[in-house]
Amino acid sequence: MTDDPGMEDVAAALLVSMSMFRRRMRQVPVQEELTLPETAALSRLDRSGPTTASAMARAEQISPQSMGATLGALESRGLVDRRPDPEDGRRVVLSVTEAGRALLRDKRTARIRQIAQVLAGEFTPEEQRHLMAAAPLIERLAQSI
């Protein structure tokens, strides 16, 4: 008899723990300058590069109208820039401005500090090493789904 958990047990434990982590990250604000949809849109543009509003709406699984409103709010604050698509002048391509990147960096830095403070205060060095070892595996799992 083995002590190894079954794959469904591992999957269930990861799903519960990652869902709880994500929910808590949403509940505990770091900076209230951006709404959740604005943060998601700005982060996607930063990660994926310039794209159209319709492509972003599909990727975020929201309506084009909702994405348009979100992008309009980001653009009005100078966080997103709109330019004609060089390949098709009828379309508009959006990209993150330097101000948008700076805001994302500040938000990520604040979130990292928040998590680091909890890790330092409530986790042993051995537990911290386990979490560090698990991080790339969780990332690989996310990319493979």
TrEMBL record:
Biased segments, Basic and acidic residues type: 78-89
Keywords: DNA-binding, Transcription, Transcription regulation
Region (Disordered), start-end ranges: 43-89
A UniProt-annotated Pfam family: MarR
Domain HTH marR-type: 7-140
Protein's name in the database: MarR family winged helix-turn-helix transcriptional regulator
